[in-house]
Amino acid sequence: MRASFSQIFDPASSQAVAISDLFKVVMIICAVILLIVASMIGISLIRFRYRQGTIEPRPFFGNRKLENHLDHRVDTDGHLAHAGANGRACGVSANA
Question: What is the rounded distance in angstroms from the CA atom of residue 95 to the CA atom of residue 47?
Fold first, then answer.
């Protein structure tokens, strides 16, 4: 028995017509959002790619939340290690 995909978009009742129309509207909205996000990523990849002869940007300091978030390191046995409040390294399993 061979199923036809055209029957999926052929609603049989008035409620099915409403659901099908809503589905189509949502799919169009999602497709537009996907195109916007994909194009922004593509533009960013092209515009900010590495070029020969450019210098590295200056490091950013002063944002404690960002610095603490970026300070997490993974050590050799798969644990996240970062300096705790007392300056000693704390270990949290990365596999959990």
Answer: 36
pLDDT in tens, 28-76: 999 999 999 999 999 999 998 888 888 877 776 777 777 776 666 555 5
CA distance 31 to 96: 35
Domain with 91, as residue range(s), is: 63-96
Token readout for 15 is 């409620």
Candidates 71, 61, 21; CA nearest to 9 is 21
CB 70 within 8 A of CB 59: no
User: Is this prediction's pTM over 0.85?
Assistant: no
Together in a domain, 16 and 45: yes
Kindly report the length of the chain.
96
Residue 81 included in any domain: yes
